[in-house]
Amino acid sequence: MHWIIRQLTVLLALWLLSTIAVAQSPIVLGERLSIASQRLGETRSIDIYLPPSYHDPSLQPQAYPVVYLLDAGADFRYFTTLMEKLAQGIPSVPELIVVGIESRERERDFVTGRKAFWDFVADELTPQLQSKYRCSDYRILVGHSLGGLAVITALCERPDLFRAYIAHDPSLWWGDNAGLRLLEAQRQHDFGGRILYLSYSGQKERDNGRQRHQQTISALQRMIAEGAFRQLEIYIAHYPEENHGSVQVRGNIDLMRRLFAELFIDRREIELRPSTITEHYEALSRRLHYPFTPAEGYLRSTAKWLEATGKRQQAEEVRALLPAPRSRPSR
Length: 331
What we know:
The chain is an alpha/beta fold and 331 residues long. 47% of the residues lie in helices and 19% in strands. An eight-stranded mixed beta sheet has the order 1-2-4-3-5-6-7-8, sandwiched between helices. The protein starts with a helix and ends in a 12-residue tail after the last helix.
């Protein structure tokens, strides 16, 4: 009898486990492309994050700004989570498509073989993204450490490829100050309204490049003070309490919010003057030299909130900003 009870208990446990397994579903952050590159002579994996509204059938289709994120293998998961959070509710950034580029040989991609790497990004990756996804022409490049040096390289050698360049603790000192020398060569170059945001962490007294790292950052700050670069908006953020590994997390939050500063609109302003939404987006468009408009989802949720608080007239003024219906593309 005890043997039968034990057998029944085992069978019940197995049934429960199988039921739980069937009920499980994966949490999907994005999708992965494999691109056979002639420029690189290899197949490269690309991670793609699409914002929640991208496939929402209740919303009109829109094009999204695109972030190209270097070192995707290490940074794609946390970065996309941060950007999705910052775009929710009262947004600090717009909804974004994030393109994570994986690099197994970082020095080759970012230093020695950089021409082939940026040829791949410009001539192979970007056209495929534009044909497959609803990408706007507002592109942002983000990199950390040696990837931050790659951001500086792209700014100097491919300034038309991106509109904003964000470098965290860039290794300007690498290869006998190669990054700093690249910037020195760009003195009085007209960058046509591009943006460079840079963050750097606290200094450590170790003989591993950190002292030279601080020296190159200081040299760049002197160049900026001398007005070395034309039509280039530069902002440098120092986080002395952060280390080389953590600075990018803090920096991505702060610098992305700074890049899209006008997007954050206090709801009390909207209660008083719904037209402040248009004014904020027009100010953002002027500063970034690119047309930005409020997302349909944001306008609908704001109008719904106004109506729920008894501000029906203001809700109607916000609904008047909604885009006109148009056909939905297949991608």
